[in-house]
Amino acid sequence: MSTSSALKVIQTPVLNIGYEESGNASGFPIILLHGFPYDIRSWDQVVPLLTVSGYRVLVPYLRGYGSTSFRDPDAPRMAEQAAIAQDVVDFAEALGVSEYALAGFDWGNRAACIASILHPESIKALVAIGGYPVQNTLERGKPAPAIGEARRWYQWYFNTEQGRIGWRRTEEISSATFGTPGHPGGSILMKPSTVPPPLLITLTSWRLRYIRTATAILTRQVRIGLSR
Known about the structure:
This protein has helices at about 45-50, 80-95, 105-120, 145-150, 155-160, 160-170, 200-225, and strands at about 1-5, 5-10, 15-25, 30-35, 55-60, 70, 100-105, 125-130. It is α/β, with parallel strands linked by helices.
């Protein structure tokens, strides 16, 4: 029996997750995970190719996006990589899905990779678009080529208070904002999001990524100094 792609909502321990479901309700489940600053529309050209092959296709909004919301309005708006991975696991469990495949890009790729590491008994296949993105936030990575670092200008800018205020004051933050200059995008998968990406969730993700790394390095240097 085929299901429509009407938007649905399911409750997990932390979130009310909005998602679309398409294809054969009894088919093998495939969960497609979008990235920043996109949304579930990124997969519109992929879903029909999977449903015609008999799969059950589930496309959720990540935390903070679309109709996905926190059950507790006072819950911290965190987006650590472990948290977005747990969201995927919780989503599958809420649906009663014990085995499934994952595909994701950007944030969705990171969530998919970590979920696959933690739950190999459930995740039977993984398509990691863009490579293996699990981050070591405790060690400084090797610098990327200058052009690569330049393409992440927005992450550094929004780590500053000036960037946070600028984001909050504008109503024009969208995928187009991050596309000029240098945000990776333009893939056939990636349609622009129609709503702004979530401010607090995005900022905590980037700040945990960069500030924690800097703090860990500083702490290690202090310990080395004290041991001398």
